[in-house]
Design goal:
Chain lengths: ~240, ~325
């Protein structure tokens, strides 16, 4: 079975968008391009309002990804878990589709006896280990996020460490919103490690608005526009994942 | 605060609920919740007269964990994980939830046991753990998420057992699940690639935790903070040559570490405080192994060619 490139947007925010298009619609759009959108909501105490929570879940749902609300202290663990689970989920989707082709239309994994699922899971695990992965990290730098940013930085470095233990290739890029002049600003271009963050993060300017929707839209476009360093990946990867997620 | 996004939408079975599997039709009466984590919820349940542990999960983790438990079952001798009893789906109007049933391992976790029975048990239980880890590693697995909460002391005489195989990873891959305090990546003392030395780091941290009295929080990465802490407790001073080796990834097998611990307990000198043979300490990946093998095959061919040509020359001279 071939392994393509898994594309993910990882949105880290602490609540509600207040500018531009609906982030849920933009996440649904990203999904159309074969990009999974995961959301991590970082809260201070137990405080997250209903509306914020709804938006976080809504974005992940529409983006075919996973959402998790955590205290800042749990962020490292969560970031790596969400990324990993979303990969598994996407790959499971791919594998399920293959299965349907083999077994006929009506079959899903639930129609397969539990004893047989192990073999499928092994394939999913193997793909998760070896597939190329692109993660675009989208960090909310509106005023309320300010004191959480050092923790976000730690969590992202930690994610880089976790993923670098995989056999497959990784590429990360980092965007923040709001940017200095635009809705979104690119801080780090596609690169295999996130270490460069250490020097970028202290310089962040904190903004007042939260244009989550536009940020997701730009992030999606960034996946498409970069000349992808294909290496040994086949050209039909993109199409391969687009219609499976 | 951490919520499993798939599980949180499903209602939990209450005590008394009978869960019947869709495929095998076995029934389990839920007695109480044993604990929950990122991957699901574990219940104590009754099946016939026996108590079992039943894990319900919304994600794909059931299939993964069942795979691990199944391959444990194939290993003769003891791998200390729970044995697998059943795998099935629980069908409710909201949908089907996968679950698996395993042996219920009754007993306190490692820390509670030591708190109650004394720290003299620490050495014994860690030695047992290292023996089990050795078997596990020999069979191509790394436990991954090794921490006191995942270690249960059961039976009489007391025996350490591992639960929660959610982090158990095929050697050479990226560790699936870990916990900061016991993770060498977090301490900046190594990678998150599954190798025996990954587990041995966690084992050393567990030992430190037991004697220090709490889980450690990193002030700075690296070995320095850990070295300082080890000076504070006599038990840790005693074992520090072993612990330092484990923390820095200098042991290649759990058995090496176990033997060094035995030596220390006996007051025997002679623990070399240096990394053994290969400093890289990374196990050979399959590819490297193949490469090495290929190289070896090459050498073999060259050797055979040489021998044959020598025989030929001798033959020529003989003529
Ligand atoms: N076989 C068993 N016998 C007895 N108790 C068990 C067993 N399996 C699990 N438990 C109990 O249930 C708790 C949660 O189980 P487990 O750790 O497997 O869940 P998890 O979702 O993988 O959690 P984590 O987030 O810690 O990985 C354990 O801490 C333990 O107390």
């Amino acid at each position: 079975m071939k392994t393509g490139t898994l594309k993910q947007i990882l949105l880290i925010t602490d609540g509600c968008s207040n500018q531009g298009e609906s982030p849920i619609a933009m996440a649904a759009l990203a999904r159309e391009y074969g990009i999974t959108v995961n959301v991590i909501g970082v809260v201070k105490h137990d405080t997250i309002d209903e509306k914020g929570l709804e938006e976080i879940e809504g974005i992940a749902n529409a983006g075919g990804g996973i959402s998790q609300v955590v205290y800042a202290a749990d962020l490292s663990r969560t970031v790596q878990m969400v990324t990993r689970k979303a990969m598994t989920q996407t790959l499971q989707g791919v594998v399920n589709k293959e299965l349907r082709q083999i077994l006929g239309d009506m079959k899903t994994i639930e129609d397969i006896p539990p004893e047989k699922r192990g073999e499928i899971m092994e394939v999913v695990d193997e793909l998760g280990e070896t597939a190329a992965l692109e993660v675009l990290i989208l960090v909310d730098t509106s005023a309320s996020m300010k004191h959480k940013l050092p923790t976000v930085k730690e969590a992202l470095l930690d994610l880089s460490l976790s993923l670098s233990a995989r056999t497959g290739k990784n590429r990360f890029s980092l965007f923040v919103f709001p940017g200095k002049k635009k809705d979104v600003e690119k801080l780090l271009d596609w690169s295999p490690k996130l270490e460069a963050l250490t020097s970028i993060f202290p310089k962040l300017v904190i903004g007042g608005i939260t244009p989550t929707g536009p940020a997701i839209r730009e992030a999606t476009a960034y996946f498409k526009n970069t000349p992808i360093l294909r290496g040994n990946l086949s050209d039909d990867d993109e199409q391969y994942f687009e219609d499976t997620v | 605060m951490m919520m499993n996004s798939t599980l949180k939408t499903l209602s939990k079975p209450r005590p008394g609920t009978v869960i019947t599997g869709k495929w095998h039709k076995n029934s389990y009466r839920v007695l109480r919740e044993l604990g929950s984590g990122a991957n699901g919820i574990v219940y104590l349940a009754q099946a016939g007269g026996a108590k079992v542990a039943l894990k319900i999960s919304g994600g794909t983790s059931v299939a993964s964990e069942v795979n691990v438990l199944k391959s444990f079952a194939k290993v003769r001798g003891s791998i200390s994980g729970p044995s697998l009893i059943d795998v099935d789906d629980w069908v409710r109007p909201e949908g089907a939830t996968p679950f698996y049933v395993m042996e219920y391992i009754e007993g306190p976790n490692l820390l509670d046991f030591i708190r109650k029975n004394g720290r003299a048990w620490a050495e014994v239980l860690i030695l047992q753990l290292l023996k089990d880890l050795h078997v596990l590693h020999e069979h191509g697995w790394v436990f991954g998420d090794l921490k006191p909460e995942n270690l249960i002391v059961t039976g009489s005489p007391p025996r350490i057992r591992c639960i929660d195989v959610g982090g158990t990873t095929v050697k050479g891959r990226a560790i699936k699940e870990f916990t900061q305090s016991y993770d060498r990546g977090y301490w900046e003392l190594g990678t998150r690639r599954a190798e025996p030395s990954y587990d041995l780091f966690s084992a050393a941290m567990i030992m430190i935790h037991i004697h220090y009295g709490k889980a450690l929080v990193k002030k700075e990465g690296g070995i320095k903070q850990l070295k300082e802490i080890m000076k504070e407790k006599p038990e840790l001073v005693k074992f520090s040559p072993v612990l330092l080796k484990a923390l820095q990834g200098w042991y290649h097998s759990a058995e090496e570490m176990r033997l060094d611990m035995l030596k220390t307990i006996n007051g025997m000198a002679g623990i070399t405080a240096k990394p053994a043979v290969h400093p890289g300490n990374a196990p050979m990946s399959r590819r490297e192994y193949r490469k090495k093998k290929r190289k070896f095959e090459w050498l073999e061919t060259i050797l055979i060619v040489k021998i044959v040509s020598m025989i030929y020359i001798l033959y020529l001279f003989g003529q």
